[in-house]
Design a protein that fits this description.
about 190 residues, globular, 7-stranded mixed beta sheet, Rossmann fold
Length: about 190
């Protein structure tokens, strides 16, 4: 079925991590699900899943969040892709990105993992890096702070204030990829803000 997209939001399980920078991918898919008034259901692939539509008559969306940790995202991603017969070029992975400034969303397909263990594990499990990434900017840590501590930290005051807008922008970008394809979505999302 070509008019189906698998959208996976990356993050770590449990209350300890739910508000951390590393979980922004899951926050974004939560927003896409909330817009449709749906609720998560457990799936045998070790993930929570929502099956819905982008809009009435539009592409089908399978939204997912792994029940496991970021570094083991590949197993559930590959199992879901197989179960729902979604090829890698119809997979959208939403994740935090150190190399993109906070409050910016970037779209790309393929390429390296940039040290992101969730992306690395998914590319390994699928046997290809050629899937769409919605890269949600969290920026680099200040000073000499370890990036691992930074991504596992919660958003700071000013970030927290702007976080709902960033989540909404990333959800819009995700929906745009499913609606119009990557190139058209990139042209809109990457256009300079007026």
């Amino acid at each position: 079925m070509t008019d189906r997209w698998l959208v996976i939001g990356l993050g770590n399980p449990g209350p300890r991590y739910e508000r951390t920078r590393h979980n922004i991918g899951q926050m974004v898919v939560d927003e896409v699900v909330a817009r449709r008034g749906e609720s998560w259901k457990q799936h045998k692939a070790g993930a929570r899943v929502v099956e819905t539509w982008l809009r009435p008559g539009g592409p089908k969306l399978v939204l997912a969040k792994s029940n496991g940790y970021m570094n083991t995202s590949g197993g559930p991603a590959a199992a879901l892709a197989k179960f729902f017969t979604v090829p890698p070029d119809r997979l959208i992975v939403v994740h935090d990105e150190l190399d993109v400034p906070f409050d910016v969303v970037k779209l790309k397909s393929g390429g390296g993992h940039g040290g992101h263990n969730g992306i690395r594990d998914i590319a390994k499990a699928l046997g290809t890096p050629d899937f769409v990434r919605v890269r949600v900017g969290i920026g680099r840590p200040p000073g000499r702070q370890d990036p691992a501590d930074w991504v596992l930290g919660e958003f700071a005051g000013v970030e927290r204030k702007n976080l709902p807008i960033l989540i909404s922008d990333a959800a819009d970008a995700t929906e745009l990829v499913a609606e119009s394809g990557l190139v058209a979505a990139q042209q809109k999302v990457h256009a300079p803000k007026a």
